[in-house]
Amino acid sequence: MSKKEILIHPDPRLKKVAAPIDGVTDDLRALANDMLETMYDAPGIGLAAPQVGVSQRLIVLDCVKDPEAEPQPTVMFNPEVIWESDEKNVYEEGCLSIPEQFAEIERPAEVAVRWIDIDGDKQEAEFDALWATCVQHEIDHLNGVLFIDYLKPLKRQMITRKMQKLKRERARM
Length: 173
Prior knowledge:
Elements lengths: L25 H16 L4 E3 L9 E4 L12 E11 L3 E8 L2 E11 L1 E7 L5 E7 H14 L10 H20 L1
Antiparallel strand pairs: 1-2, 2-3, 3-6, 4-5, 6-7
């Protein structure tokens, strides 16, 4: 397993719609494991393949935050929301591609998602609370949507300018 470099916004690869996966291969399983390692190391609770420069429909997540609890690493190929609740939740979201920037985002409180797991089997499950927010956030990445796209233009531009400055500073190091 090896950690991947996480792309920082603005990067045109983060705005592209990712390609569907035809079948789960050993290379894709290795990528999923690398993405889990990268996500845990960051640390984060979700990561989408486009964030590591791979334009394919793959996300990983683990919303277990309690250090005493058993981790629940989840790998989803071609995830899609097939149902969402009318009830909404607001969570303060952040993103590994937009470090140290947070905003309250409203999303459906519960969703049902269909995906293919790491063994190539079809899965379907309902998610709520933080898991629902996280899975929607990561699926957005597969569609070229960032959480800041839900913000008013001025706030979005402010965050984008901060990220451009951060990228310039990192380039000098």
